[in-house]
Write a structure and sequence with these properties.
Elements: H1 5-15, H2 26-32, E1 36-37, H3 43-51, H4 57-65, E2 70-73, E3 79-82, H5 84-104, H6 116-126, E4 132-133, H7 134-142, H8 149-159, E5 162-164, E6 178-181, H9 182-186, H10 195-206, H11 211-218, H12 224-229, E7 233-237, E8 243-247, E9 262-264, H13 283-289, E10 290-291, E11 294-295, E12 298-302, E13 305-313, E14 316-322, H14 328-346
Antiparallel strand pairs: 1-3, 2-3, 4-6, 5-6, 7-8, 9-12, 10-11, 12-13, 13-14
Helix pairs in contact: 7-8
Length: 347
């Protein structure tokens, strides 16, 4: 089947539960999406609010405190909010990408030259009695290695599967980063990843897709042979004739399916998970969002496409810019979505 860009847009939004909100639990949604981008505390809550019929932020915080959700460095070398089972499988899978980050990271610097076995042994000794703040980890490692504590703290979070513990990531709570081994914290042992299963789950949430798309989402390379060898997948084509892999039973949305206004965070996996990044945006809109150090604000989607940027000012949603005029119906949708997000922020 040849799929137009518009149809791929609607299909992605449908699989992301951005065409219609779902009645799933936060845990179930996090698992379906294979994690939520969580470099900052607020975006995961915005992602859930955009996709679920009802979200209680303190319930999500409780899931972190109960160790039923966890924050961990995984896909693309960034922090994600994950289920413990996904954290245990994803971290070993993305380890090569994290190794690349270690080699070029300015924050790690020359500390990368420490023998890896020695560094891992020292870190395990430092954390033998339980969790510690990142600053304390760096200071204790500096007693063993002649490098700045800040570099050693950054090295530690990269060479080992260290989870960021609550209150980090909890609703409207502050606090420094405290780390513990994710398997010790959650009680779920690290696992050998089932790569075909991860690919199927990616397609369920983000497909149809090319191997390059799966790489853009995960930063894991050489996935072409994996998808080609999966004889349970079906193939579509995009408008340029590229092969798109998919699950045989995965729904394909109609081109004219309504796409309501949605307010998302600065980064959201819905538009970070394809090589072309054009499933929900065009080059000009994306260009206006990009600054020298990353995204310039939270993202506004209208009719399924990136249409503007918004900010939070004194607990209120402020539309920073729009790329096009809105219809009356779209303005009504935006007003409703703004009210919904402001109610969330007020909790």
């Amino acid at each position: 089947m040849r799929l137009t860009r518009q149809r791929l847009n609607r299909t992605l939004l449908q699989r992301q539960h951005l065409l219609a909100r779902a009645t799933l639990s936060p845990e179930a949604m996090v698992r379906h999406l294979i994690g939520l981008q969580a470099q900052e505390n607020l975006p995961p809550y915005l992602s859930l609010a955009a996709r679920l019929t009802s979200v209680e932020p303190l319930q999500v915080s409780a899931l972190l405190e109960q160790r039923r959700l966890v924050r961990l460095l995984t896909m693309r070398g960034t922090i994600h909010l994950l289920t413990p089972e996904d954290a245990a499988a994803l971290r070993p899978w993305v380890a090569p990408r994290i190794e690349q980050e270690i080699r070029v990271s300015q924050s790690i610097g020359d500390a990368r030259d420490i023998d890896r076995t020695d560094a891992e042994r020292a870190l395990r000794e430092v954390l033998a009695d339980g969790p510690l703040p990142q600053k304390e980890i760096g200071l204790r490692l500096a007693e063993r290695f002649p490098y700045p504590p800040t570099q050693l703290g950054q090295l530690a979070r990269s060479i080992a599967p260290l989870a960021q513990l609550p209150p980090r990531g909890c609703w409207k709570q502050s606090g420094g980063v405290v780390y513990d081994y994710v398997d010790r914290w959650t009680g779920v042992p690290m696992a050998e990843p089932d790569v075909p299963d991860l690919v199927r789950r990616y397609l369920r949430a983000f497909g149809p897709a090319t191997p390059a798309d799966v790489t853009a989402w995960s930063a894991v390379t050489r996935l072409g042979p994996v998808l080609k060898a999966m004889d349970d997948l079906v193939q579509h084509e995009d408008e340029d004739g590229r092969v798109l892999y998919d699950l045989a039973d995965a729904p394909i949305a109609d081109e004219d399916a309504p796409a309501p206004v949605r307010l998302l965070g600065t980064y959201d996996n819905v538009w970070l998970s394809h090589a072309g990044r054009d499933r929900v945006t065009d080059p000009e809109a994306r260009k206006s969002w990009m600054g020298t150090n990353g995204g310039m604000g939270n993202t506004l989607f209208v009719d399924g496409w990136l249409a503007g940027i918004w900010r939070i000012v004194d607990g209120r949603v402020e539309i920073d810019r729009l790329h096009r005029d809105l219809t009356k119906a779209e303005q009504v949708e935006l007003d409703e979505e703004v009210s919904r997000v402001e109610a969330l922020l007020a909790r």
